[in-house]
Amino acid sequence: TTENAIMKVLVVDDDALAGEMIAAVLEGMGHEAVLAEDGVDAVGRLNADSSIALVISDMNMPLVSGIDLFRELRAQGCLLPFILLTGDEPAGLLAQEPRLDACLAKDFTLEEHLPALIGEVMTRHARG
């Protein structure tokens, strides 16, 4: 099944520690994490690596926010599943950008909730 397949996941976060933590969760699930430090870096990495299967991005970053990155990717025709992480209220961001696959609060429950959320998003995309 796709749930057990190893995926390459792009993690976009200007906070290196947060990025490493998310990468550790992914690696714990058996996936491979590719870290990007901002939206521009993320777009470059996606263009350079067609094997990336999922994007997990922080919302609050300098230059390009997570939502702006998502919109930019969709505008470029990149339809990869996209999970937005935020220090704010996820529901508000989902209302602002309903096309997001998921929005998760970036707090102490992240490590607990992220694996299930990734499974859910990827299953939805496999069906979609």
Notable traits:
128 residues, five-stranded parallel sheet, 20% strand, globular
Q: What can be said about this structure in brief?
A:
This protein has 128 residues and is an alpha/beta fold. It contains 5 helices and 5 strands; from the N terminus they run E-H-E-H-E-H-E-H-E-H. Helix 1 (16-28) crosses helix 5 and helix 2 (39-48) runs parallel beside helix 3 (66-75).
Would you give an account of this structure?
The chain is α/β, with parallel strands linked by helices. Helix 1 packs across helix 5. 28% of the residues are buried. The mean pLDDT is 93.
| End-to-end Cα distance | 15 Å
**Structural class by SSE content:** alpha/beta
How do the strands line up in the largest sheet?
2-1-3-4-5
Helix fraction, binned, reads 40-55%
Q: Helix-strand pattern, N to C?
A: EHEHEHEHEH
The tally of helices reads 5
* Proportion in β-strands: 15-25%
Residue-averaged pLDDT: 93
| Main sheet properties | 5 strands, parallel
* Rg (C-alpha, Å): 13 Å
Structure summary, number of beta strands: 5
Low-confidence stretches: none
Shape from CA axes? Answer: globular
